[in-house]
Amino acid sequence: MKGKEISITEAVKKFVNDGSTIAFGGFTQNRHPMSFIREMIRQGKKDLVVYGHSSGIDLDILVGAGAVKRAEIAYVGDEQFVTPSPNFGKAAEEGKLEIQDYSNYGATLRFLAGAMGLPFMPAKTMLGSDMLKSGSDKGKSEKKFHLMECPFTGEKVVLLPAAKPDLAIIHAQMVGEGGTVMIYGQKFADDIIAKAAKEVVVTAEEILPEEQIRQKPALTCLPFFEVDAIVKSPFGAHPTSCYGLYDYDPDHYKIYVKAIKSNSFDEYLERYVYVEHREYFERIGGVEKMERLRADPVLGYSPNLKR
Amino acid sequence: MPEEYTLKELMVVRASKEIKDGEKVFIGTGLPMIAGMLAKYTHAPNCVIIFEAGTVDSKLLDLPASVGDPRCVYGASTCTGLFDIFSMLQDGKIDIGFLGGGQVDKYGNLNSTAIGEYRCPEVRFPGSGGACDMACLSKRVVIIMKHELRRFPAEVDYLTSPGWMDGPGGREKAGLVRGGPTTVITDLGVMKFDPSSKEMYLDSYYPGVSIEKIRENTGFDIDCSRAGETEKPHIEEIALLRNKIAPKGSLR
């Protein structure tokens, strides 16, 4: 292993603590760092505080495994299959999870403030929403929001507190050995989340020599020093999509949802989480499955995917 | 003999008409996507479809399953992320926000967060996502959802996305600078908002749907005195939906 590369086991051991505040890259059904998250479950991490905007199975699988204490999010759903994501919905209805709701823009601006070294960001969104109503204090000393008049124009704005998670995990198509990151397709808020976090781990489909990724610096989105460790993780976003390489996996989503609805999530974890990645790959359908999910190089997705 | 069209198909066709050619449309997941694609394939080929996860004006050869789907990227003018898209929205550049929700009330306020007590709800929904942002910041909002009594309460349990708030002047008081809902399209008919009272009224009902049925499925008094029958969809529109946009029968 060269440069910042470490194994997934080592990465989770080194960077995730019980009670960590943590943010994941991706968006609902797309490019979540799932291999890293499964390793977090295997290592029994708990009491996590997850910051997100549009989460999906990334947060949901951790909630199902009992690893999450609190979620500050805007959305938790697997858009095509089930909304909200089933473990999250269940935990919320049973009052087992602390939740702070923001809008997607609000959540993004919180990361932006964190990335800019500012304590808050003003916005014109969420005004009039119950998300800016009582009963939504963050904690004893923390405020969820603050309403004020703009000192220059007098108009009403909301101030949203910076989000600076202990750790951000981003799954990228490519990373250089030194940590320079290249993401294809939508970046969602991944670059902002990474810059806001105190430490960053990037899992990637492919690790390139640093000088090779630097041949196209206009296409990179994170400078090497923002990234503390990199992990090689082919198909690491499965069952979510990874633009240009593979599509989301409808079969697996159905298995996931069915397991939760039939109260057999423990069996799901046993079969798909408490296994090494190589074995996971076989259990989800192996080479044949990946052929079906493989993205068309022009379209960026699998056009004949049965979904 | 097969039925000509389903109410769900008519709902999508009618929703697509809300988009005028050339308009910039911010589209949510599910039915708004199908309506947006139909508009682009028919009367509004130059409408600009924008997805919050980062893409502007994609060609949409296949229906995306998510607003962050790789399918949203093909042929797009730009492909960035949430910050860019929402900032354009906040700056007033987007004409229509097209959304669904769990509940809508008579002022067009939407709930996509929870039913019952927020901290320990009877039903938890996925949350705002970009819906509240669209509702706050687009020039106008079009709502598309199933017409059921439990989805049409007098007042939403949780106000995720502001409509006309508590009536005239409500949005201004909250500090919102523009926008508000203009139309609610369901599988039974089309509702609009009275310009002075800001209350929802029935604008048209689908052929074969009685006004009585709409009243029964609406949890507040709704003015039906201005209602006429909705125009039927064209066969080409239904064919496009069935063969091209949503071929899996999701609208049957």
List keywords for this structure.
heterodimer, A: 307 residues, alpha/beta, Glutaconate Coenzyme A-transferase, nine-stranded mixed sheet, three-stranded antiparallel sheet, globular, B: 252 residues, ten-stranded mixed sheet, 7 helices, 23% helix, 19% strand
Describe this structure in words.
The complex is a heterodimer of chains A (307) and B (252). Chain A contains eleven helices and 14 strands. With 307 residues, chain A is of the alpha/beta class. Chain A has one domain: Glutaconate Coenzyme A-transferase, CATH 3.40.1080.10. In chain A, the strands form three sheets. In chain A, strands 1, 2, 4, 6, 10, 11, 12, 13 and 14 form a nine-stranded mixed sheet that branches. A three-stranded antiparallel sheet of chain A has the order 7-9-8, with helices on one face. In chain A, strand 10 and strand 11 form a beta hairpin. In chain A, helix 3 crosses helix 4, helix 5 packs across helix 6 and helix 8 packs across helix 9. The longest helix of chain A is centred in the middle third of the chain and has 13 residues. Chain A is globular and about 60 Å long. Chain B is an alpha/beta fold. Chain B has a single domain, classed as 3-Layer(aba) Sandwich (Glutaconate Coenzyme A-transferase), CATH 3.40.1080. Chain B is built from seven helices and 14 strands. In chain B, the strands form three sheets. In chain B, strands 4-3-2-1-5-10-11-12-13-14 form a ten-stranded mixed sheet, sandwiched between helices. Chain B has a two-stranded antiparallel sheet with strand order 6-7. Chain B has a two-stranded antiparallel sheet with strand order 8-9. Chain B starts with 6 loop residues before the first helix and ends in a 7-residue tail after the last helix. The mean pLDDT of chain B is 95. At the A-B interface, strand 5, helix 4, helix 5 and helix 6 of A face helix 3, strand 9, helix 4 and helix 5 of B.
